[in-house]
Design brief:
By secondary structure, the protein is α+β, with helices and mostly antiparallel strands. The protein has 4 domains: about 25-115, ATP-grasp fold, A domain (Dna Ligase, domain 1); about 120-225, ATP-grasp fold, B domain (D-amino Acid Aminotransferase, Chain A, domain 1), CATH 3.30.470.20; about 240-490 and about 555-615, no CATH class; about 685-790, Glucose Oxidase, domain 1, CATH 3.50.30. Helix 3 (about 40-50) crosses helix 4 and helix 17 (about 440-475) runs antiparallel to helix 23. The longest helix is centred in the C-terminal third of the chain and has 39 residues, at about 580-620. The radius of gyration is 29 Å and the shape is globular.
Length: about 800
């Protein structure tokens, strides 16, 4: 039915049949009618609408087809007074001109005039299935701030990026009265039209009355996966609901009455392996880091160690961090369990109430180290959850632990961790010692964990402590914001060396062989076997004109003697008798450098592991695509058993996991989960990016993914989803700025951009990222905290 009618005729047909939706009073006429007697038609508009405010909209014949749509292609004019004939005529002519500009000269095209609705509480667009996958969701893109009806369709408003996914057959989980009223009207509309593949533009009055502004068929069905199984989708969501109901309960041996699950807290898997990674990447991340490594390393550093509990769980292939476990592991081992329990509950509750902090838990939710603003943090992040006496105990334990970590005695210090990393680096230099038998893969993984990810985990925690201490010197008034920026920018990490070497490579000062020997293992998707390493890229062409690292950042920055004296005085006042200001600043520098260097080294192990898997797979006639769907432990067991039908069994696993991955991609889960209803009602969190530097730039933008090879990026704002270390090559090209979908204030790319003085928005979130995919030019205003799409 919809494919045979224009927008105007569709609304005219539906208006008398609907009881839940109200169709605003409307009038339509053809271009030919208007050209024949525009004055008469303008007077008719005045008569029908009695001088009230109207919207003059397009209603072209080619606008709303069954296989394609030209939504937004033609002009709409809001706020036209129907009592002013000149205004009506001008608005109609603007719509007609928009037809002509698009070379649509059919005189039977219509113009639709609708009464403009006042007292709008919400407006937007509803898709009755997911546009990209066809998954059975109601997808509601809405604006409940501006009071306008066209912000979502135009995409021009900062308020137009709110999105709610609701599973079609689970509406009883929806608690919102306004969305219940809206979806009740949508259900009636589906029944009348006889289709549940609709694209609906709506408005909702302050009285919760839904208004139907237009409806068309969804036109993306041809790109949906024909093998997608609705029953598998529903079964999958039911299993997620069951898992969630269990995990939010009290867990034996773990402090805290409940938890919050998130994709970005702690080891931020969404940033490293993506929202819905394939089986090999997900399982490798678990094996190397989140199964045991995370807790072993924190236990070595004097934190509580929740043994036997993996930090990350998989919900239908989507990775989530159990923040209750994180909060347990941020507490000193000798802290009273009663105090610890209440702290964990307080932080879980804080994250529930402030989900926008999901990528900032170490700084804005929990207290994970002693700092010079500890009393202020206790007030902000603990409040009355524990008594003043208990706060003093907590402070004392943190003080003792932090002092030991800064001094660095034992296996938990920066120096000892770096020794382990250096040993792994030497093993890399003698990689041939592993041999080429299948059993070598297990040894490579063992070395990566013991000499790579465990010391890296320790150094990463030191990096958080260093950053926290540095920022607290600012909050105490000893360091200015400029001082902190200069310190961060002048810390030369391995990324600075990389940018220098990239330039020397471009100039011919070092050979390609020398460059690749050091950096060839890097890949933009560290855990993705389908992502090319640098030494596999045909077009890794450094820009000769790009400056070395010094051109981005600053020369070595030294604090004045007066500032160092103030820090010494503060250290004495805080009871750090064995630490001087110079020692503290050295610790901060070495911790940040060590974190980045250790990541650089251990990711070579990860890269070599993936290549070894690819080599073994090739001998079994398995492609990288097949291997990407095989969990690492299943692969290890299969090759170690060496059965005659190894290839056949692995292919069967790959096919099953590929099907599971298709479901994983189609299922939408919120970035933060705090109840079982989150399996079915999915509000996308409006993220607050972490802005780096105080610069403001306007520049063209370019989108890269983990399988993109090099291109000319100079002067452009680079947009990436996962802020993986393998993207470091972009810093060799004097980029104008960086925007990432995922990432926290202390994430890899945040540190890189601070080091090089590059304006960045790290972790802009799902909605803003989706809008940026269509952008050509962007304003990145770091001081004001704004990302504006210009065109």
């Amino acid at each position: 039915m919809l494919s045979n009618l224009t927008k105007a005729k569709t609304l005219e047909y539906l208006a008398p049949k609907l009881t839940e939706f109200v169709v605003p009073k409307s009038l339509s006429f053809t271009v030919s009618d208007f050209e024949r007697d525009s004055s008469a038609l303008c007077r008719e508009v005045e008569r029908v609408f009695g001088g009230s405010t109207v919207v003059v909209r397009s209603s072209a014949i080619d606008e709303d087809g069954s296989v394609n749509t030209l939504a937004g292609e033609y002009e709409s004019v809001l706020g036209v007074s129907s009592g002013e004939l000149n205004s009506i005529s001008k608005a109609v002519n603007l719509v007609v001109d928009s037809y002509t500009q698009k070379e649509n000269n059919d005189r039977n095209n219509e113009i639709l005039v609708q009464k403009m609705i006042s007292d709008i509480s919400m407006s937007g667009v509803i898709f009755t299935h997911d546009l990209n996958t066809g998954a059975p969701y109601y997808v509601i893109n809405y604006d409940d701030i501006s009071g306008l009806t066209d912000t979502v369709t135009s995409g021009d408003s900062e308020h137009s990026n709110r999105t709610l996914y609701v599973c079609r057959d689970k509406l009883h989980f929806l608690n919102s009265e306004r969305f219940q009223a809206l979806l009740k009207a949508v259900r009636e509309l589906e029944n009348i039209i006889g289709s549940d593949f609709l694209d609906i533009e709506f408005a909702l009055g302050e009285d919760l009355v839904p208004y139907l502004l237009q409806v068309r068929a969804i036109t993306t069905q041809s790109i949906w996966n024909s093998t997608f199984s609705s029953s598998n989708f529903k079964d999958g969501l039911s299993s997620v609901e069951h898992i969630l109901r269990e995990c939010f309960k009290k867990t034996e041996g773990v402090l805290g009455s409940t938890t919050v699950l998130g994709q970005m807290p702690d080891w931020n898997p969404a940033e490293m392996i993506g929202r819905a990674p394939r089986a090999l990447a997900l399982s490798l991340y678990k094996k190397l880091i989140t199964n045991q490594t995370w807790s072993i390393s924190r236990g070595m550093m004097g934190y509580m160690e929740p043994k036997g509990h993996p930090l990350m769980m998989s919900l239908l292939g989507q990775p989530f961090i159990d923040t209750r476990l994180s909060f347990n592991s941020y507490l000193p081992i000798d802290l009273s369990l009663d105090i610890a329990e209440r702290l964990v509950d307080t932080w879980v509750d804080r994250l529930k109430k402030n989900p926008e902090l999901h990528d900032k838990v170490e700084f804005d939710v929990a207290i994970t180290t002693y700092s010079f603003d500890i009393d202020q943090k206790l007030e902000e992040l603990v409040g009355n959850a524990i008594s003043q006496l208990e706060k003093e105990e907590f402070k004392a334990k943190l003080h003792k632990q932090t002092e030991k970590l800064i001094i660095g005695d034992g296996d938990y210090g920066v120096s000892r961790a770096l020794e382990q990393i250096d040993l792994l680096s030497k093993i890399h230099a003698q990689a041939s010692d592993y041999g080429d038998n299948d059993l070598s893969l297990s040894l490579m993984i063992k070395d990566c964990i013991e000499l790579g990810t465990i010391p890296f985990s320790i150094l990463a925690r030191h990096g958080f402590i260093a950053q926290t201490l540095l920022l607290s010197l600012g909050r105490c008034g000893i360091l200015s914001e400029h001082d902190i920026h200069c310190i961060q920018s002048s810390i030369k990490t391995v990324a600075g060396e990389f940018v220098d070497d990239m330039q020397y490579f471009g100039l011919g000062s070092i050979s390609k062989e020398t460059f690749m020997e050091k950096y060839g293992h890097l890949r933009p998707g560290t855990y993705d076997i389908l992502s090319h390493r640098y030494d596999q890229m045909e077009n890794l062409n450094p820009s000769i004109d790009s400056p070395a690292a010094g051109g981005y950042g600053l020369d070595k920055f030294h604090l004045s003697s007066q500032t160092l004296e103030k820090i010494d005085t503060l250290l004495d006042q805080e009871g750090f008798d064995n630490i001087t200001a110079s020692q503290l600043m050295t610790y901060i520098e070495s911790a940040i450098q060590g974190r980045e260097y250790s990541k650089f080294v251990f990711t070579r192990s990860v890269s070599d592991i993936l290549e070894r898997i690819a080599q073994i797979g090739e001998s079994l006639h398995l492609t990288r695509d097949h291997l990407s769907h095989i969990p690492v432990d299943i692969f290890l067991d299969a090759i170690e058993d060496d059965c005659p039908d190894t290839r056949k069994s692995l292919m069967r696993i790959a096919e099953i996991e590929k099907s599971n991955h298709e479901i994983s991609v189609a299922i939408r889960l919120p970035q933060i989960l705090s109840d079982a209803a989150g399996a079915y009602v999915v509000p996308f969190q409006v993220s607050h990016p972490n802005f780096i530097t105080r610069r403001k730039i306007t520049a063209p933008c370019v989108l890269l993914d983990s399988r993109s090879e090099t291109s000319i990026l100079e002067g452009k704002i680079v947009i990436i989803e996962n802020a993986d270390p393998g993207f470091d090559w972009i810093f060799s090209q004097k980029i104008a700025g960086l925007i990432t979908k995922y990432g926290g204030v202390n994430s890899h790319m945040a540190i890189r951009c601070a080091e090089f003085g590059i304006p960045a928005a790290i972790g802009c979130g799902e909605q803003k990222f989706e809008m940026l995919l269509k952008a050509n030019q962007v304003l990145l205003d770091c001081p004001s905290g704004l990302i504006n799409i210009l065109h």
